[in-house]
């Protein structure tokens, strides 16, 4: 949902918080549900996300991390710094995940709103349900990449 200068999503997974946390913070797992990256879950680490062709490369930095309950990063989208906060919470035998993406450029908001919805509702569950194996991700040109079955070899 777009709310002013922020995008907010909530999702529920039947997996425990630690499994969701692993999928949020392991670069191979991130590559298998989000996008190619060189992420390291350490405050101050600067990383890159490959959002081509729509947004090129997104430069990021881990600005706060409290395992397994908070991951906050700065993403620079179209030259504008934005903040992504992800909070997984125990919810019965599963996990409730809250995502907030603040200060996106207005023209980028619709794409990111739909993108986050697809990533959280479709792609992340595929990793959590073992339909996509993060071990298939490979380090290429400094970024972990997951093989895209729709791309020709």
| Elements, N to C (H/E) | EEHHEEEEEHEE
Major beta sheet, strand line-up = 1-2-7-6-5-4-3
Main beta sheet strand tally, sense and closure: 7 strands, antiparallel
DSSP strand (E) fraction?
35-45%
Q: Quickly give the CATH architecture.
A: 2-Layer Sandwich
Helix content: 10-25%
How many extended strands? Answer: 9
**How does the helix and strand content classify structurally?**
alpha+beta
Number of spatially distinct domains: 1
Instruction: Tell me the Rg in angstroms.
Output: 15 Å
If you average the pLDDT, what whole number results?
Answer: 92
Count the DSSP helices. 3
Report how far apart the termini are: 36 Å
The stretches of 5 or more residues where confidence is low (pLDDT under 50) are none
Quick overview:
By secondary structure, the chain is an alpha+beta fold.
Q: Can you put this structure into words, describing what you see?
A:
- By secondary structure, the chain is of the alpha+beta class.
- The chain has one domain (2-127): Alpha-D-Glucose-1,6-Bisphosphate, Chain A, domain 4.
- It contains three helices and nine strands, in the order ββααβββββαββ.
- It has helices at residues 17-25, 27-33, 109-128; strands at 2-3, 6-13, 46-51, 56-66, 70-77, 80-91, 94-102, 138-140, 143-145.
- The protein has a seven-stranded antiparallel β-sheet with strand order 1-2-7-6-5-4-3, covered by helices on one side. A two-stranded antiparallel ribbon has the order 8-9.
- A hairpin with a 2-residue loop joins β1 and β2.
- α1 crosses α2 (27-33).
- The chain starts with a strand and ends in an 8-residue tail after the last strand.
- The relative contact order is 0.23.
- The model has no long low-confidence stretch (mean pLDDT 92).
């Amino acid at each position: 949902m777009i709310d002013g200068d922020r995008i907010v999503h909530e999702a529920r997974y039947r997996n425990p918080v630690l499994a969701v946390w692993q999928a949020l913070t392991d670069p191979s797992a991130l590559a298998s549900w989000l996008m190619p990256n060189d992420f390291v879950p350490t405050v101050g680490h600067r990383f890159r996300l490959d959002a081509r062709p729509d947004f090129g490369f997104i430069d990021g930095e881990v600005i706060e991390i409290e395992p397994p309950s908070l991951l906050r990063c700065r993403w620079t989208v179209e030259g504008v710094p934005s903040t992504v906060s992800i909070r997984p919470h125990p919810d019965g035998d599963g996990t409730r995940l809250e995502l907030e993406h603040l200060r996106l450029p207005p023209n980028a908001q619709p794409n990111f709103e739909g993108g986050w919805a697809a990533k959280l509702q479709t792609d992340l569950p595929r990793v959590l349900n073992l339909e996509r194996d993060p071990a298939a991700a490979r380090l290429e040109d400094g970024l972990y990449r997951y093989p895209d079955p729709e791309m020709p070899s």
